[in-house]
Amino acid sequence: MSNNHHFSDINIKKIHSKPKSYTQQNVTLSDTPLFFPEGLEHIFLTIYFMLLPYIAGLLFLFFYISNGDYNIFLSLNDTNSYILTWAIGYEVLAAITLLIIIKNAITFSLPSTNKSIKKQFVIP
After folding, report:
1. Which residue, of 5, 10, 23, 55, has the greatest Cβ tally within 10 A?
2. 92 — pLDDT class (breaks 50, 70, 90)
3. If we measure between CA atoms, which residue out of 25, 52, 47 comes closest to residue 36?
4. Better-predicted residue by pLDDT, 93 or 44
């Protein structure tokens, strides 16, 4: 029985050990901030793929291009098609996602410091 306990400790250490590089981390859909109900993941992924870039494109056009002016936004929205607004939003979300990945990779590579332990300052 002690051997089984020893093997389970080794397996737990392997599972819970910190990955050596950023790209070796395990990623699950439950870790994402989006809502994926069990069994309906593909449907919600399709909805997110269609709506999130479009909404991001609308927000980009409203706040950045038309400077929050409703009349200019409506004139832009009349000339833009769904696919053009979606493509703008897709690029905005892609840039934000790349920046988040770069930020996470940098913070992962930095040595972790325990901020609860304060070092005593000693005058030399």
Report:
1. 55
2. very high
3. 47
4. 93
